[in-house]
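Sample pair:
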Amino acid sequence: MKNIDTKKRKLLAGALLASLGVNPISAKNEKSGMFYHLHYFKFKPEVSEIEIAKLMKELASLQDKIPVLKEFWVGKNDSPNGKGFQYGEVALFEKKEDLKVYDQHPEHKKMVKKIGPKLAGGISMDFVPLDPSAA
């Protein structure tokens, strides 16, 4: 029975990766050692949904402007457990040091100046994924 569950998990994981445009066969090798940065946005009540959507689309355009961003996703929160966070971003870098390059990039700084004053809160998390085969 455990073997069937493992196969189902691998199939679902592969489908998820494929939906993100990642080749599930090579994803483990290509993404190992990569550095992930996540940030969640909670906007002030007076900021309209239209303005928020516009800002988040502009944020998503950083993918084409900052070379150290290997992958970059911005999306609206759809979780019932979202704790009031309305949008999130996931940035993928080759190495941890690239996050500093991203933070200091003029296009990122411009977005921080636009978005920052409209936020009621936010939270970030940065990590290198664990290798489940290394025990």
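The helical segments are 2-19, 27-31, 49-60, 97-104, 106-115.
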